[in-house]
Amino acid sequence: MILIILRQLIFKKYKIVKSSIKNLAIVASVVAIVYSAKAQSNVEFKKLEKSAFAAFKAQKYSEALVQFTKLDNLAEDKVRYDYMIGMCLMSTENKETALPYFRSAMKHETTSFVVNYYLGRAYMNQENYLEAGHYFQTYKEQLREYMNETGFRFKNISSSTINETNRIHMEKTLEDVNSFISLCADKRAEIYAQSK
pTM of the predicted model, to two decimals? Predict the structure, then answer.
């Protein structure tokens, strides 16, 4: 009788060990599949990101918008693509929908001060001239501060002084930011006069 009980215990223990090894193999396989899928997903994500920036640079804003929106939905860091989505929207007929994306991008610590310019433009598109003027003024002050800190001058642009994206934005916006500030002040005065 004792021999039978002992034999059953050994057999059960063998089944448990065999079962544990089988389970361990299954878990290891699942981990390998998940890791492989994540690596493949990362490669596809990087391809999509590269394609989105290429479309934006080629001024294919609608195409870039679709791709940046996909990236935004896939990314853990949602704010990372908000600025680019806002930029695409500002470059299409959907300008009025860009504001929430710029506001979200503004919360990210690595967002360039240039977002203030586009926040000003987005508020202008919504005819909120008080906020627009505020963001244009903030942009102008931060640009002036940046230029003083870096010794930046448009005549001596070098890639070590400023990255290409900021250089393009600064050249494009520096000339017209003062006129936007004046326009916002005029519009605010006009609205105030009409409300009396």
Answer: 0.65
